[in-house]
Design a protein that fits this description.
Shape: globular
Mean pLDDT: 88
CATH topology of the largest domain: Rossmann fold
Strand order of the largest sheet: 1-2-3-5-4-6-7-8-9
Structural class: alpha/beta
Number of strands: 13
Oligomer: single chain
CATH architecture of the largest domain: 3-Layer(aba) Sandwich
Radius of gyration: 22 Å
Number of helices: 14
Helix content: 25-40%
Order of helices and strands: HEEEEEHHHHEHEEHEHHEEHEEHHHH
Length: about 500
């Protein structure tokens, strides 16, 4: 049985975490890696795709792309995808270093859409390949304003629910949402999603390299990063563990809001991977294979870190985990973007977020993770290291250790937590727990906590300065975050 580095330590780390982050002070190079093989898959790329009954790209970004100097186009990718399985006599070991082999083959037709700089001179050479999330039973996933600063962003419809719609959500699957545009799409099942994801990206790169008019036009791509959040992060964990060695398409991986689960190749329902009622006995917890040939950065929030704790692994020269104190599963700004896109696309799914939902923003941290990961791949400069959230092991079950205010100790400290404006929590369902909850202080409680507005602003700005010094905030983002302090203590 294979053993991971520090497997024993991984489940013990965190009980004595510090509040302050540890910053890497060196740019030590990681071992030399062979470049990812961008071999053009045996697939056909058709497009740009236009028309249809609706006349626009489903789940396209709501950002003004033209104003940002970007163009967006959609393409169909058709080919043959393989499923994978554990090799004969092998098991899915906890360290994630699985030995696998290709299994069955099936035809597919999926779609991608690409947002790219209209001016090739402004392209930084980094393609972000996004595994579109289908946890809602239909697709979600967009680039942020910060990403649109030189990167190209590719959405990949890798899973069947995005094309067909999930249970009770068929009307929001691509095929039914606009059959005139997407009726030709065909997905053989999620066992093939891993190869569909890799094939779509490699085929798009291959088509773009062959002649003008491809998904990347005449842009020269040097680095390809795979990223995805929540369920998509789970799928990427399995991809890294069991498919990466077969499909060397990606130079690095960014997993957002990851629960520490890597689904088995045999398809199971999403809910079965989170057997909380059964004490987690059936959950597929797994570390992520740390082979050193493609760096992996995981960004977790308070909503996932307690569950991920069971598979926590040490930081290395090619693996990093960041955990954000007080933060919900998705940033409030991302939820707003989903709501705006839903109104445009006619997606009516649930009511508005509760007024008590968690207010801790953290999108800047995931944007910073992209910047650090790209530099890590290109230059070998390691991202900063941060202490994890502190886990209290004194009870019958692990829980978060809390400070005097009631917020979790450790991790990256957003100003909403560091300059406490209330008590913030997030976790697994039920009752909108992933959206989290913020019990905000009233004016009297703010006075008790901070004394006066001047001291509160000093604490808030000090927290912002620490994030900026760690490279987690760009100057323009720092200004925006500093301005938000007035939302919680307006000037008299």
């Amino acid at each position: 049985m294979k053993l991971s580095r520090g497997r024993r330590q991984a489940l013990l780390t965190g009980s004595a975490a510090l509040i302050a982050p540890i910053f890497a002070t060196s740019c030590a190079s990681i071992p030399s890696r062979p470049p990812a093989r961008r071999n053009a898959a045996n697939a056909t790329v058709v497009g740009p795709v236009t028309g249809g009954d609706k006349g626009w790209i489903y789940r396209a970004p709501v950002i003004d792309l033209a104003a940002a100097g970007y163009v967006i186009e959609e393409f169909f990718v058709s080919g043959a995808a393989r499923s994978f399985r554990l090799a004969d006599g092998e098991t899915a070991t906890f360290d994630g270093d699985w030995t696998t082999q290709a299994d069955q083959t099936a035809p597919f037709t999926t779609r991608i859409f690409v947002a790219r700089p209209s001016d090739p001179a402004k392209y930084n050479g980094v393609l972000l390949a996004h595994w579109q999330n289908v946890s809602a039973g239909y697709e979600n996933g967009w680039p942020t304003d910060a990403i649109l600063g030189g990167y190209a962003w590719m959405a990949v419809s890798a899973q069947a629910d995005g094309i067909n719609g999930g249970a009770g959500k068929a009307q929001y699957g691509l095929r039914q949402w606009d059959n005139a545009r997407y009726g030709a799409l065909d997905h053989p099942g999620d066992a093939f999603s891993y190869d569909i994801f890799a094939t779509a990206v490699s085929a798009a790169l291959g088509r773009s390299a062959q002649a003008p008019g491809g998904p990347l036009a005449n842009l020269k791509t040097e680095t390809v990063i795979a990223l995805g959040g929540s369920q998509s992060a789970l799928r990427l964990a399995t991809f890294i563990n069991g498919v990466h060695s077969h499909r060397r398409v990606f130079d690095g991986y960014l997993l957002l809001s990851h629960f520490g689960v890597a689904p088995p190749f045999e398809e199971r329902s999403l809910i079965s991977l989170f057997d909380i009622a059964g004490g987690g006995r059936n959950a597929a917890w797994s570390q992520i294979a740390d082979r050193g040939d493609a760096p992996v950065l995981v960004v977790d929030t308070q909503a996932e870190a307690l569950m991920h704790y069971r598979a926590r692994q040490p930081d290395t020269a090619s693996f990093r985990t960041w955990e954000i104190a007080g933060a919900p599963h998705a940033p409030p700004s991302a939820t707003h973007m989903k709501d705006v896109a839903g109104k445009r696309d006619g997606v009516v799914d649930g009511g508005p977020a509760p007024s008590t939902r968690n207010v801790v923003e953290w999108g800047y941290a995931s944007d910073a993770a992209i910047r650090f990961l790209a530099r890590w791949i290109r230059d070998g400069a390691e991202p900063p290291r941060f202490e994890p959230l502190t886990i209290d092991l004194s009870g019958s079950h692990p829980s978060y250790a809390l400070d005097d205010v009631g917020n979790v100790i450790g991790g990256i400290r957003p100003p909403e937590v560091a300059a406490a404006i209330g008590v913030h929590s997030a976790g697994l369902p039920p009752a909108n727990a992933l959206l989290g909850r913020s019990v905000l202080f009233d004016r009297q409680r703010m006075i008790e906590q901070h004394g006066d507005r001047r001291h509160f602003l000093a604490s808030w700005n000090d927290a912002v300065a620490k994030l900026e010094a760690a490279g987690l905030l760009l100057p323009v983002e720092s200004q925006q975050v500093r301005a938000r302090a007035a939302e919680y203590w307006p000037a008299d």
